[in-house]
Specification:
142 residues, Immunoglobulin-like, 4-stranded antiparallel beta sheet, 0% helix
């Protein structure tokens, strides 16, 4: 079974963050499409989800409930993650507007499900998104 760990790359800003996944096992694995991404508060409750951002533009609003299914997007290449290899995912969000007049949620972790993999991994973060939260496809890293 492939083991993957994740961490935020750098510091979250007012508009986004990057996180990196690393294959910590001895076997290669594949990632493709978008991660299944839930936004968790400090108690582990889902406060929103990220929506696929295929064109790099604005996605839909952040919505509570289950995340979109992780699936390869049309034209997205599979990322082969060799042992010790990395893949990146970028998260874009707005933090300057209150969602429907309410307070912006505090996100303390991301629950990540990778396409073609089983199980979830948790990446610790700290940010307050408002409005939309978009996620990009997996991108190979160095």
């Amino acid at each position: 079974m492939t083991a993957i760990r994740g961490e935020v790359a750098g510091t979250a800003t007012d508009t986004g963050l990057a996180f990196v996944l690393e294959n910590t096992s001895r076997a290669a694995c594949q990632l493709a499409g978008y991660p299944d991404l839930a936004l968790l508060d400090g108690t582990g409750n889902v406060v929103g989800t990220a929506v696929p951002d295929a064109l790099g533009g604005d996605g839909g609003p952040m919505i509570p409930g289950p995340s979109p299914s992780p699936s390869p997007s049309t034209g997205s290449a599979r990322v082969i993650l060799r042992p010790g290899g990395h893949a990146w995912v970028w998260l874009h969000y707005g933090s300057s507007h209150h969602q429907h007049g309410s307070r912006c949620p505090s996100v303390e972790a991301l629950r990540v499900g990778a396409a073609h993999q089983h199980g979830w991994l948790t990446v610790r973060v700290s940010f307050r998104p408002c409005d939309r939260v978009d996620v990009t496809v997996f991108t190979p890293g160095p």
